[in-house]
Amino acid sequence: NERYEPQAIEGKWQTRWDDAGIFRAGSRPGAPKKYVLEMLPYPSGKMHMGHVRNYLLGDVYARYFRMKGFDVLHPMGWDALGLPAENAAIKDGVHPAVRTAENIASFKKEIKSLGYCYDWEREVNTSDPEYYRWNQWFFIQMLERGLVYRRFSKVNWCTGCHTVIANEQVKDGVCERCDSPVVDKEMPEWAFRITRFSQELLDALDTLKEWPHRITAAQRNWIGRSDGAEADFRVQGHDAALRVFTTRIDTIFGCTYVVLAPDHGLVAQVTTPERRAEVEAFVRRMAAQSKTERLGEGTEKEGVFTGAYAENPFTGQAVPIWIANFVLSDYGTGAVMSVPAHDERDFAFARKYSLPVKVVIQPASGDKLPPGDELEAAYTEYGVLEDSGAYTGQTSEQARQAMAASLEKDGKGKATVTYRQKDWGFSRQRYWGTPIPIVYCEKCDPDRNGIPVPVAQLPVRLPEIDTQAVLTGKGEPPLAKVASWVNTSCPKCGGPARREAETMDTFVDSCWYFARYLSPHYDAAPFDPKEAQRFLPVDIYVGGPEHAVMHLLYFRFWTRVMKLLGLSPVDEPVKRLITQGIVNGPDGRKMSKRWGNVVAPASIVQKYGADTARAYVLFAGPPERDFDWSDEQVEGVFRFLKRVWALAATHQAAAAGATHDGPYEGKSLEIRRAAHKTLKRVGEAIERLSFNTAIAGIMEGLNALYAQGTPETAAEKAAMAEAVRLLAAVLTPFAPHIADEIAEAYGSKDFTVAQSWPEFDPALVVDDVIPYAVQVNGKLRAEIRVAADAGEADVRAAAEADEKVQAALAGKTLRKFVFVPKRLVNFVAT
Ligand code: ANZ
Ligand code: ZN
């Protein structure tokens, strides 16, 4: 067939792949494994380009590794529980299960139309009771080990979604999802004790060498280890001490007052009669404010004096005790020693209320700070101590250690390690989630701690409901309204009991789905530990960087729990993490309904075929970077595939009988050199996650083959036949349908993806290497050495890989790239 008509071939190959089951994992037991995974989607009705890109990055590796001989596991599933389906149900009365099933069906059809190589026999749906029963099972195991507990605490309540949301989902006081105000609410909730693993999760970040730095940095910051000290200040006139938490014990000789949280337990006790009215008024006012209000950027720091004094444990000096809005009762000890000379917040507060400022740290440089009352700003760096008794002259670092040791020796305090990370409150007042397997029995459990449902009775299924009556978005949790479900019998005494009506955060589902894929129908445990031995950890995980501190931290935690339970051998879920950039519209804004700049994947597949859609999205830019959609480039990629097709069609007849044993010289040698160089370049580019240069390499290889004109001799014909076959092989990860069609036309009996990735002949790829000067804004930054015939894309990739160039480009936006063949490149960036 002379004409490239993707619509005529793509469906056929997809069906053949499916029928042959070639993407089934576990079919090469002796081979080394690769587990390639993309973050499972929430099944909204339609796929968008972000999904297409996400899955392609995994797909390229899955196909490539299969060709490299690995036993590849590449599964797909549905993060099917959660708010959007329930919110939609509140609006239109369609049961979330019905909507979710429809969405999955249409989403899956779209996924299939792009020719991804998933092992569909492992499909997982988190709303299936056979899935969420294991959430419940984990819950009970963790409850037994103290990793789950019930607590009363202030939670973030979204006034729009009518549910509790995680700290991470509150952005500037409003809900990230619906933009409604978030308020504090005192409620019982269930929490995972993730903080038991804080240090482990932190330490292990150092082992995640193949994770993007910004993700590990975000997690490090989120866990927020801080090394500090606690010190007791004796309260004068009371048999009590208040314990402060500080990260700068070295400044304690400069402490001129202490501050308690308004709701600190000692406030009522120490406040003097004269100060009582004012203090109580302040405490009441604070109690009425949410944490976000109290700590907001624009909120003025304010406080009141309690009338009481406390003694510095080192000097015995008495300092006034205040309460203030910026001290939180649930951080540290809820009490702060204030050192205005060396802390900005304390400085502002001291100036506002005319409290003394005393300098005790001098810069190590030898510069001298003015005395406290002339100081213009706090000096917050480390330095050398002065006016600090026996510690004068020590550095901050020395004093921190020595002072903490002294406190410990005197029984007045100790060194501490604390974390910013909090336990993970996961109960939600929602219907469309995993029921928490707990019942409350007044007789056996008067304190309402909760009695776990016996494991043999799992799953606790979500009940059928009258959607409109139950999903109203108002009042108590939906499940509490379903009397036939919520009323049950006590597992201990058999008497009347009530089920827990709250459900689990859907982040629980995505904590371990990657392990469920290993044995999705296993029913003796969440997954088969033997399969975990074989396939964990995930080798490559692809997803959006927005998950840096929720999903990607939660599932690291869960992985440790799975090891603790003896289910899995690994400490960490994922070896290499790839976070893909955003697909913007042609206008440079993130594709979204709001901007009307969405390009629907289906429209591209219909017009140009899946192979063009795939190759374009991969060609448009490096995986981790954002790119702007370009219709011209789509056309360009389509033309490229047409030229591939035409080359193959032109030489097909000659290729049929072409054989040649002798040496290759002249033109036949050039044809072979072009083909083998392409093979080498594409393989190397894939290995370094440079799919765009891989495709650019194929384009250049194609041009080189065209440049050779029509093969005349037997040697030339044989060389060209080989070249076309190699072209099909290297196209397989990117444009698999056309690859198989061409390979078949050239006599292949098997799918290209089922064949080995061809080895290039080293003798055919030796190249002259030449130097290129690399400039950034016209300034020489590096010299790189590349193959003499390397094209623009390769030279650019090599230049971008250079550390000095990266440093010079850091934080800048690239405006232009100048390429002078065989001499230099210049990045113009601002
Ligand atoms: C004295 C001091 C002197 C401090 C100095 C800092 C600089 P991170 O690093 O975030 O853990 N702090 C302690 N408990 C607090 C609470 N419940 N609410 C508000 N602030 C609190 O911050 C630790 C520092 O935050 C502590 O160290 C304390 O102020 C303050 F030159 O103590 B510092
Ligand atoms: Zn009972």
TrEMBL record:
Reactions this protein catalyses: tRNA(Leu) + L-leucine + ATP = L-leucyl-tRNA(Leu) + AMP + diphosphate
GO cellular component, alphabetical, reads: cytosol
Keywords recorded for this protein, A-Z: Aminoacyl-tRNA synthetase, ATP-binding, Cytoplasm, Ligase, Nucleotide-binding, Protein biosynthesis
Domain Aminoacyl-tRNA synthetase class Ia as annotated: residue spans: 421-629
Q: Boundaries of each Methionyl/Leucyl tRNA synthetase domain copy?
A: 38-180
UniProt-recorded Gene Ontology molecular function terms: aminoacyl-tRNA deacylase activity; ATP binding; leucine-tRNA ligase activity
Q: Where is this motif: 'HIGH' region?
A: 41-51
Record-linked CDD domains: Anticodon_Ia_Leu_BEm
Q: Which GO terms describe its biological process?
A: leucyl-tRNA aminoacylation
Q: Where is the Leucyl-tRNA synthetase editing domain?
A: 220-407
Statement: the UniProt record of this protein carries the keyword Iron-sulfur:
no
Under Enzyme Commission nomenclature, its number is 6.1.1.4
For ATP, which residues are the binding ones? K593
Q: Which domain of life is it from?
A: Bacteria
Q: What is the enzyme's main class?
A: ligase
What SUPFAM superfamilies does its record include?
A: Anticodon-binding domain of a subclass of class I aminoacyl-tRNA synthetases (SSF47323), Nucleotidylyl transferase (SSF52374), ValRS/IleRS/LeuRS editing domain (SSF50677)
Q: Which InterPro entries match?
A: aa-tRNA-synth_I_CS (IPR001412), aa-tRNA-synth_Ia (IPR002300), Leu-tRNA-ligase (IPR002302), Leu_tRNA-synth_edit (IPR025709), M/V/L/I-tRNA-synth_anticd-bd (IPR013155), Methionyl/Leucyl_tRNA_Synth (IPR015413), Rossmann-like_a/b/a_fold (IPR014729), tRNAsynth_Ia_anticodon-bd (IPR009080)
- Where the protein is mainly located, per its record? cytoplasm
NCBIfam families, sorted: leuS_bact (TIGR00396)
Q: Which family does it belong to?
A: Belongs to the class-I aminoacyl-tRNA synthetase family.
* UniProt name for this protein: Leucine--tRNA ligase
Higher taxonomy: Bacteria, Pseudomonadati, Myxococcota, Myxococcia, Myxococcales
Q: Which gene encodes it?
A: leuS
